[in-house]
Amino acid sequence: MSESSDHQVLDAQGAAHTTHAKLAAWVDGVAQLTKPDSVYWVDGSQEEWDRLTQELVDAGTLTRLNPELFPNSFAAFSDPADVARVEEQTFICSVNERDSGFTNNWMEPSKMKAKLTSLFDGSMRGRTMYVIPFVMGHVDADDPKFGVEITDSAYVVASMRIMARIGTDVLRKMEELDAFFVPALHSVGAPLEEGQQDVSWPCNKEKWIVHFPEERSIWSYGSGYGGNALLGKKCYALRIASVMARDEGWLAEHMLILRLTSPEGKAYHIAGAFPSATGKTNLALIQPTIKGWKAETLGDDITWIRLGREGEMRVVNPEAGLFGVAPGTGWSTNPNAMRGIAKGNSIFTNVALTDDGGVWWEGMTDDVPAHLTDWRGNDWTPESKEPAAHPNSRFCTPIDQIDMLAKEYYEPNGVELNAILFGGRRKTTIPLVTQSRDWTNGVFMGATLSSETTAAAAGQVGVVRRDPMAMLPFIGYDAGDYLAHWERISQKANPERLPKIFLVNWFRRNAEGGFAWPGFGENSRVLKWAIERIEGKAEALETPIGFTPAPGALDLEGLDLSEDELQEATRFDASEWANELKSIEEWFAKFGDSLPASLQAELEGLKERLGAK
Ligand code: OXD
Ligand code: MN
Known about the structure:
By secondary structure, this protein is an alpha+beta fold. It is 28% helix and 21% strand. Strands 1, 4, 5, 6, 7, 8, 9 and 10 form an 8-stranded mixed sheet that branches. Helix 12 packs antiparallel against helix 13 (479-492) and helix 12 (439-447) packs across helix 17 (597-609). Bound molecules: oxalic acid and manganese (II) ion. Manganese (II) ion is lined by residues 254, 301.
């Protein structure tokens, strides 16, 4: 660690570490405000990781796992009140309130700045202030997107090393380009007074996750949880990036990226937007069950879509790691994820510990261990009432440990996108797969994307919640303007090369109440149909809501499912759409004036086709 004293901190030492004048000035200013004991510039090296993780073990924040089971891996256990993103405390402080839209919290920027400035005043006292230069996406991209996170949490530094490209190499590139960077300031909000004993998971009851979109800056206070504290991820790569994308003509989306290769050797790239609890990580790491098809992954959470030189849409995953929900990720449901995790170099948060020094979570293995230490540190047995791992416990693992990672992941400017999937969790109404009539109809599908609430979430069960493009908590500006931007982008693109758009639903129920479609690896059959639609090979039925697979068009070979049973999953049911129309109207009413006319026209067209006009 740096040996600098308070006095040195105040003596503008930024310039000693970087020739990037704006960065040096920002770091010095933050140090003056937050008053840490020392300032440390993160280099991103293995030696640094080893040192920091050992310090975190010594402090009781991390538990080193049995290296024979999970090499170079650690478990962290958070404060029980700091386990998830805090949407009610997440703000988009645009200059004009209208620009944050109805999906975001807003406060007047200068009022928010004053509030945050007083909270950050002295917030790092007794701690080290870490400076993490990072880049989202590739440092060699045509337009690399830099950021610098300042944090007082070494857990954040270690996690950021997994999730993003960080350190001295990035800093040197920033200096060479005198690049713009997003200043991303984070404090757990737990200053240590002289002689005060630290806790294993410092945080503050008061939490603020704040974005200033015009300034492109982030201030995060009070939480150590990944989604609130690893600021390259949701805060930058989605909320701030969506604003940059609006202004610069691209899209920042909450999507996975898959590369599928047909038996003829033709490769396609598919991006998929899925709200939480809809099997996104499983689809990103799918093991196809259809013969001759190969799946590789490029990403599991965030996708940036830019226009290429020929007007094609190109996708990159700006992240370097997976920050996945652990429960439900298992050897039988997602072996590709498990093999990557088992290679180690991972940080687990709020999972359970096994007696032999490994980790476990619900759904990891078919056999449940006879004894565990649960995420709160209590003894746990299969008779225990509470889950052993917190339902939002996470694995944080380098993406290059995934065997099925496509080599195209490393392409600095991405690969051409051929199809977009929007997927929700619906028991009724939404067929297994529907191809949109055209781009605008596909944007309508994304704009009305929905899931039913499950018992896992607080509140009423079975209520339909709209989640446009699975971006509800992540759109950094007005939601209507965001949908209009999707339209605008398509007008700039080469119309021949526009990705085809599909709405999918793996969760429809049959008359007996069971799942009408087996899901998991069998979803590859749906992907195959989508690709064959692109190739003009697969048959479809034209319905009022779009194109669904014609009888016999979906490959069922080797699957124990009759055409009749398949019908239950794929059918369009006009009677179910009467309610759906009402619900979509209510949803669109929330946008007020900012709903694009093209989407209102889509709704009117749908009503007409359904005979509801
Ligand atoms: C995530 C999320 O953590 O969407 O990926 O909340
Ligand atoms: Mn996500």
